[in-house]
């Protein structure tokens, strides 16, 4: 089962990374000003992850592939790492779909 690792950035913002069973980060959040808004972001990922229509498949300027997960309002709630292939990116999306709904929270800010 995956987990959401919650941490703080150097600038004091909160962030989360969704990690797969193997510890690899499969989705990274934006920065949040409060822990409560970070936790709301996690709940949004759990809710939206199973919905294929919430994923935006993208290609970076250097030709790598990645994806963003969007909330119902169209706001990006998490982005993936860069992948060498579209199949790698698609596997990443499947991993988020599988891991996010039941992922535990590992609060590393305490």
Question: How would you portray this structure in words?
Answer:
There is one protein chain. The protein is α+β, with helices and mostly antiparallel strands and 110 residues long. The protein has two helices and seven strands. It has helices at residues 35-48, 86-99, and strands at residues 3-8, 14-19, 25-28, 55-59, 65-70, 76-79, 104-107. A four-stranded mixed beta sheet has the order 3-2-1-7, covered by helices on one side. Strand 2 (14-19) and strand 3 (25-28) form a beta hairpin. The longest helix has 14 residues, at 35-48. It is globular and about 40 Å long. The mean pLDDT is 96.
- Measured as a percent range, the helix fraction is 25-40%
Tally of separate helices: 2
- Provide the gyration radius in Å: 13 Å
Outline:
globular
Q: Within the largest sheet, what's the order of strands?
A: 3-2-1-7
Overall structural class, as computed from helix and strand content, comes to alpha+beta
Calculate the mean pLDDT score and round it: 96
Overall strand count: 7
Low-pLDDT stretches: none
Order of helices and strands: EEEHEEEHE
Distance between the termini: 23 Å
**Oligomer, anyone?**
single chain
Strand content: 25-35%
Largest sheet: 4 strands, mixed
């Amino acid at each position: 089962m995956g987990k959401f690792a919650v941490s703080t950035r150097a600038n004091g913002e909160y962030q989360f990374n969704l990690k797969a069973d193997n510890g690899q980060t499969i989705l990274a959040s934006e920065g949040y000003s409060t822990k409560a808004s970070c936790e709301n972001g996690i709940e949004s990922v759990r809710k939206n992850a199973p919905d294929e229509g919430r994923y935006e498949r993208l290609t970076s300027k250097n030709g790598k592939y990645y994806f963003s997960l969007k909330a119902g309002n169209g706001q990006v709630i998490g982005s993936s790492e860069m992948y060498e292939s579209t199949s790698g990116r698609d596997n990443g999306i499947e991993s988020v779909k599988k891991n996010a709904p039941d992922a535990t929270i590992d609060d590393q800010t305490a």
